[in-house]
Design a protein that fits this description.
single chain, alpha/beta, 9 helices, about 50% helix, 3-stranded antiparallel sheet, binds adenosine-5'-diphosphate, binds zinc ion
Length: about 210
């Protein structure tokens, strides 16, 4: 099962990718998570990526394309993968197409999560992430059992880029650079559009139903 999850910031890509990973036992490849880890480790790539991420802009294509190409060659992708947050531009989609052809890993589905903008903002401002394991919560919609603490015991924190000003720019970037990918994958006959406004478990069920028909 080779899947892309598409959608604006806050649509639920990470949440659904984690559920699909457990269900199908295939890895979630989140470029945002890989980049945040690089920032935390203060690697050269992390230092370069940080200023883009802090501003809510996209990290240059060649950086993320390289990350994904390498990640797809790891053994754990043999049975499939879930791309979460990649591709985000047309050049990234073209580069992915080429990599997947070379690796002989054809895409099965591109699932696009549709959510209204005001709901997205509410989701992003209430999002909390575990510092240790990366698990995602929401203060109202998906709260941790214990205040501010992940099920793994880690401390929850708010991402630096989940502040209102940066969110506004990320939405604009999405509409300008990422939204055109819907037509790209519709033309390739791979796109499935899902209502992302429903409850987390209902969205998951809808995605499963869609994937069963692929
Ligand atoms: P993305 O990866 O697309 O940016 P996330 O999966 O991180 O989105 O979700 C953004 C926030 O919204 C998180 O706090 C998450 O808990 C919450 N969330 C995700 N899906 C839903 C949903 N269907 N209903 C309500 N809240 C949701
Ligand atoms: P969200 O789903 O909430 O937008 P992500 O964790 O996917 O957040 O991405 C966080 C940030 O990491 C983005 O705003 C961007 O700066 C960078 N990033 C992640 N994926 C990509 C990508 N495919 N291309 C360029 N930049 C990316
Ligand atoms: Zn945790």
């Amino acid at each position: 099962m080779n899947i892309i999850l598409l959608g604006p910031p806050g649509a639920g890509k990470g949440t659904q990718a984690a559920m699909l990973m457990n269900r199908y036992n295939i890895p979630q490849i989140s470029t945002g998570e890989i980049l945040r880890a690089a920032v935390q480790n203060q690697s050269l790539m992390g230092l370069k990526a940080k200023e883009y991420m802090d501003a809510g802009d996209l990290v240059p294509d060649e950086v993320v394309v390289g990350i994904v190409r390498e990640r797809l060659q790891a053994d754990d992708c043999d049975g499939g993968f879930i791309l979460d947050g990649f591709p985000r531009t047309l050049p990234q989609a073209d580069a992915l197409k080429q990599s997947l052809e070379e690796l002989n890993m054809p895409l099965d589905a591109v699932v696009s999560l549709q959510v209204e903008t005001d709901v997205l903002v509410e989701r992003l401002t209430g999002r909390r992430t575990c510092r240790s394991c990366g698990k995602v919560y929401h203060l109202q919609y998906d709260p941790p059992a214990q205040n501010n603490t992940c099920s793994c015991g880690g401390k929850l924190e708010q991402r630096d880029d989940d502040c209102e000003e940066t969110i506004r720019n990320r939405m604009q970037v999405y509409h300008q650079q990422t939204a055109p990918l819907e037509d790209y994958y519709r033309d390739a006959n791979l796109l499935s559009v899902i209502d992302g406004m429903a409850e987390i478990s209902d969205v998951h069920e809808q995605i499963i139903l869609t994937l069963q028909n692929c």
